Amino acid sequence: MKSKCLIKKNSYYDSVTLMIITKEVESVQGVENAVVVMGTEHNKELLNNVGLLNDETSAASPNDLIIAVKLEDDSIFDSIVQKVDELLNKKRSEAGEDYYPPTLDSAVKHLPESNLVIISLPGQYAAAEAKKALLNDKHVLLFSDNVTIDQEKELKTIAVERGLLMMGPDCGTACINNVPLAFANVVKKGCIGIVGASGTGTQEIMVQIDKFGGGISQAIGTGGRDLKAEIGGLMMIQGIEALAADEETKVIVLVSKPPALEVAEKVLKVLKSTGKKAVVDFIGGDDKLVLDYGFIPAATLEEAAYKAVELCSKSVDEVLGLEVPEFTKATAEVEKAVKAEASKLAKGQKYLIGLYSGGTLCDEALKLFTKEMGDIYSNIPLKPELRLPENAEIYKNTAIDLGDDEYTVGRPHPMIDSYTRQQMILKLEKEQEAAILLLDVVLGYGSNEDPAGTLVEQIKSVKASFDARGQHLCVVAGICGTKGDPQDYSEQVRKLEAEGVVVLPSNAQAVRFAIKVLREVL
Amino acid sequence: MSKVNELFKTELKVINMGLKSFSNELKHQGVTVLQVDWRPPAGGNPKMIELLNRLKDRK
């Protein structure tokens, strides 16, 4: 095996573009390993890990493009460089011939009426650009992570002083004026305003509100750390106050992982002062606290959506007494499907394996499963002792968040690129005690253009392996998407069902279905 | 009216720094978006960036 590299000085490209190109180069015959990256310190570590760091690649700057390849025959390297050039040119022409200002300052001069700056730069540069945007009186959506909590505090303090939105860091979704931003679904306009500290949690609530016939006025993301004591809910409070003053918003939904108690109380007090009806989903948090303030708690993201839609036309007391239907389909139809799946499982098949692209969806699966069935292992466990053992990718009942940092080093998020999940699905072949594979399929802007299509081949292959040894793998998928999303919802469902996947319209329903099947065989 | 509530009543006009896919998707929805051709300041040298930021803060 030989190593070849080429440095292109002063050629900056974003990480997702380069990861997609890396994958294309890796698919070339004779290439064992390819790394197409900017010369940052982090990327040099990646190069070192695969034995491609040398004097030349070490000397590259973060502004230089590195093309480094391990290959059988180095005579094909020139054609690989040509391929990279073609792909980069294609990306450029897809983006159009528009003027691209080189800095934020010049962009503000060029488009002074701009009101929102979206930042998805590498974390170490992102905070400085976000600060500049705020000081120019622009609202900010900061998608980047790796921003320190001190920087977050500084940015949000500036934003509050100036009356601006500082969504993020690590804000994956928002919907402002009915425009989906970052990873977000196309939903109807309506009277429900959301402030969310959880990306896929907010997405799932928006999608389910749309399915229950409701609509969204605004959805404001805060980033996952906003309700930590250090930040004190600065942006959630800013968001609540804006929704309070917004005539379109009749009902408010808050969603977050359980906050620090003093922050929860502070936020609920502000919410109370708005006089608006609200559903508060502190996922797995204290229902009593929420009830004490006169708001409606929710056990699942779907329930939060259902109750928010009902609140648009009913009183809090009326909605408190309602129960969200367990399944959208008729009970008899669901029971029939459960029995059909369970009857095909062989003796000894008893575990659920969840492979998730959405962190909050995975967390919801862990909580629902624990409540009904007991312990489940994870990389984002509910208790420290349920962390997956070292070197075990799967252990007994397991649900994995494949969007967590350990799975995304050098790769795009699994909502964009299914590679890691594809590999994990194929590896299930050897898991003879597995009964159920549980998946989330997230549609919408930002996500892969055909998420179902990227998984079906691997599902087909692993199901065939189980069949060949007289077993069956029950595959259940919850779709987080709407009919308005760019991926064609019906076609996504059709692709999955064609491979025998049981498709449910929410994550909560998918988990419930999986539990019902397990109950039949345990 | 607060600036956030003003935003709710104004057409969204976006400056995008980073992933070009975000720009393309906004354009697809008919939103005005200006992509910044961003590259790391000071050639990506962390010490130089810190010095530049300090100079800017002094201004």
Describe the structure.
- The complex is a heterodimer of chains A (522) and B (59).
- By secondary structure, chain A is α/β, with parallel strands linked by helices.
- Chain A folds into 3 domains: 2-94, Alpha-Beta Plaits, CATH 3.30.70; 104-320, 3-Layer(aba) Sandwich (Rossmann fold); 331-521, 3-Layer(aba) Sandwich (Rossmann fold).
- In chain A, 42% of the residues lie in helices and 19% in strands.
- Chain A contains 20 helices and 18 strands.
- Chain A has a 5-stranded parallel β-sheet, sandwiched between helices.
- In chain A, helix 14 (331-344) crosses helix 20 (507-521).
- Chain A is globular and about 75 Å long.
- The N and C termini of chain A lie far apart (50 Å).
- In chain B, strand 1 (13-17), helix 2 (20-28) and strand 2 form a beta-alpha-beta unit.
- Chain B has 3 helices and 2 strands, in the order αβαβα.
- Chain B is of the alpha+beta class.
- Chain B has one domain (3-58).
- Chain B has a two-stranded parallel sheet with strand order 1-2.
- The mean pLDDT of chain B is 87.
- Strand 4 (116-119) of chain A pairs parallel with strand 1 (13-17) of chain B.
How many β strands of chain A by DSSP? 18
* Shape descriptor of chain B: flat
- Quickly count the domains of chain A: 3
The amount of helix of chain B comes to 40-55%
Helix segment tally of chain A: 20
Task: Specify the overall morphology of chain A.
Answer: globular
Percent range for helical residues of chain A?
A: 40-55%
Gyration radius of chain B (Cα, Å) is 17 Å
CATH topology of the largest domain in chain A, by name, is Rossmann fold
Major β-sheet annotation of chain B: 2 strands, parallel
**Side-by-side strand order of the widest sheet of chain B:** 1-2
Mean pLDDT of chain B: 87
**Subunit arrangement of the protein:** heterodimer
CA-to-CA gap between the ends of chain A? 50 Å
Give the uncertain stretches of chain B in residue-range form. Answer: none
**Strand order, largest beta sheet of chain A:** 10-9-11-12-13
